[in-house]
């Protein structure tokens, strides 16, 4: 007698665990940062809707060159950029609340209107951006995940790079800075394998391009104290040259 369906063993559910490029480290929010998260994040923060691409013109209230700043840390670099180049909009993405709170306080103090903040995983955020919606992507001092068994957690991976190519305009810049030589080699290998990116070998066209500007960061200073060499490198999305005069 054939068994009834209910007699068959249940098929175990398959749970696919997402590999994250970050670990939410415990960090104590100061009273000021806690106030910023509750009072200022609604003002500067972005609530994304995965059903539709983010409308950046509506978000910033204008059409302007756009920079996607991934993993802005304590926010000092993105605030410095935004204060120096008011005609450029900066979309900052970070997951660590103390850093987000610190950035929000800096934005309030500087009274800047050209920065918006997304407190979520960058891998998810990039998928919600429209094609050709940003002029540059900054990836400054990402977690290097130095142990070989953790390399799969590195943010610069072929799938993520493909998404960056999609959201960048033709000729748009990808700017990576790191103080880990192994991470630089890894990033170069991944980017060089993607035909949609070309390494920028001549820095002359970047010297006066505000999209290529990077102020010093806390992570850079820490790396230098440890004796690490800091490396900045640029890749341009293949297509017509693009820049801000």
Provide an overview of this structure:
The chain has nine helices and seven strands, in the order H-H-H-E-H-E-H-E-H-E-H-E-H-E-H-E. The longest helix has 14 residues, at 97-110. It has a seven-stranded mixed beta sheet, with helices on both faces. It has helices spanning 31-39, 41-44, 56-60, 76-84, 97-110, 122-127, 158-167, 181-192, 218-225, and strands spanning 66-70, 89-93, 115-118, 134-140, 168-178, 197-199, 231-237. The radius of gyration is 20 Å and the shape is globular. It has a single domain (65-237), classed as Vaccinia Virus protein VP39 (Rossmann fold, 3-Layer(aba) Sandwich). The protein has 245 residues and is α/β, with parallel strands linked by helices.
Present the secondary structure layout.
Elements: H1 31-39, H2 41-44, H3 56-60, E1 66-70, H4 76-84, E2 89-93, H5 97-110, E3 115-118, H6 122-127, E4 134-140, H7 158-167, E5 168-178, H8 181-192, E6 197-199, H9 218-225, E7 231-237
Parallel strand pairs: 1-2, 1-4, 2-3, 4-5
Antiparallel strand pairs: 5-7, 6-7
């Amino acid at each position: 007698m054939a068994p009834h369906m209910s007699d068959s063993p249940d098929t175990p559910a398959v749970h696919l665990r997402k590999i994250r490029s970050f670990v939410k480290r415990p960090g104590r929010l100061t009273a000021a940062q806690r106030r910023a998260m509750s009072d200022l994040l609604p003002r500067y923060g972005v609530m994304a809707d995965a059903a539709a691409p983010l409308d950046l013109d509506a978000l910033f209230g204008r059409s302007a060159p756009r920079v996607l700043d991934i993993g802005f840390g304590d926010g000092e670099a993105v605030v410095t950029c935004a204060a120096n180049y008011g005609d450029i909009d900066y979309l900052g993405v970070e997951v660590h609340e103390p850093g987000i709170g610190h950035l929000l306080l800096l934005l309030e103090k500087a009274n800047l209107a050209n920065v918006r903040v997304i407190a979520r995983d960058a891998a998810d955020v990039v998928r919600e951006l429209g094609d050709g919606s940003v002029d540059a992507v900054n990836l400054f001092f990402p977690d290097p995940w130095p142990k070989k068994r953790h390399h799969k957690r590195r943010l610069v991976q072929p799938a993520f790079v493909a998404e960056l190519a999609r959201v960048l305009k033709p000729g748009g810049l990808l700017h990576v800075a790191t103080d880990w030589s192994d991470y630089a080699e890894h990033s170069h290998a991944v980017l060089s394998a993607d035909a949609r990116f070309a390494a920028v070998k001549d820095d002359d066209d970047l010297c006066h391009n505000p999209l290529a500007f990077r102020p010093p960061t806390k992570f850079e200073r820490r790396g230098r104290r440890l004796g690490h060499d800091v490396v900045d490198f640029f890749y341009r999305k293949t297509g017509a040259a693009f820049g801000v005069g």
